[in-house]
Amino acid sequence: MKRGKFITFEGPEGAGKTTQARRLIARLQEAGHEVLYTREPGGTPTGEAIRGILQYDKAGEAPCAETEVLLFAASRAQLVRKVIIPALEKGTMVVCDRFADSTTAYQGYGRGFPIDQMLAINQFAIDGAVPDVTILLDLDLDIGFERLATREGIMRELDRIEREERAFHEKVRQGYLELARRWPERFQIIEAGRPTEAVEKDVWRITQDVLHR
Ligand code: T5A
């Protein structure tokens, strides 16, 4: 059985990761592929419970920064072993809305934990499940937050991390760009401030290259 491809979407808040992941899945299915969508933090019952703690302090207190790193990693470890690796082994395409690079960008570059430490924790969590391609949707922070504020039909409060100050989110954005420079063979950067259809076209072109590798 041919192993499925593992595609991750990364980027700052409101970059359009979920929108593009859904559109990509529709295209892949139309082309006859078996596809699985998942997200981080979350994607398993354990991961979804962790998501509640991380985003909305469901345990009744805000996790400290070190706990935050380990909770993201714990959610990922569960997702990789229970969902991602079994799917890839069955030949299913896996599209994941955020993955290990989010920890390096947000907790490493954003919070200031040593990058090598974040990479080591990620390595432990992912059990060798390195994405075939990571699509980095890069955009100006103001556009991203404007999109979140006007998100169609959904009134929801900003979560704990979205409420971080602008300087934090700027470090995250620059961190992602640094990661893309570090792994140019895995990262593909798309300018995500453009109309949805234009971004979708680029995502599809990149995916086709990956499928034909
Ligand atoms: N986090 C996560 C860490 O700190 N460390 C980690 O290790 C991990 C895994 C997750 C939070 O956790 C942090 C990062 C995050 O702060 P989340 O709720 O999963 O939070 O949220 P995000 O992944 O950040 O997703 P967002 O909700 O911010 O946005 P998306 O998915 O990038 O954007 P999307 O597709 O939902 O679109 C947002 C709005 O913009 C519109 C959409 O219709 C929607 O209304 N839109 C566009 N509008 C105009 N033009 C386009 N091209 C558009 N594309 C989308």
Give a written overview of the molecule:
With 213 residues, this protein is an alpha/beta fold. The chain has one domain (6-212): P-loop containing nucleotide triphosphate hydrolases (Rossmann fold). It has eight helices and five strands; from the N terminus they run E-H-E-H-H-E-H-H-E-H-H-E-H. The chain has a five-stranded parallel sheet, with helices on both faces. The longest helix is centred in the middle third of the chain and has 25 residues, at 65-89. The chain is globular, with a radius of gyration of 16 Å. Bound molecules: P1-(5'-adenosyl)P5-(5'-thymidyl)pentaphosphate.
Quick recap:
The chain is of the alpha/beta class and 213 residues long.
**Main β sheet profile:** 5 strands, parallel
Number of domains: 1
Mean pLDDT: 95
Number of helices: 8
What is bound: which ligands? P1-(5'-adenosyl)P5-(5'-thymidyl)pentaphosphate
For the terminal residues, how far apart are their CA atoms?
A: 16 Å
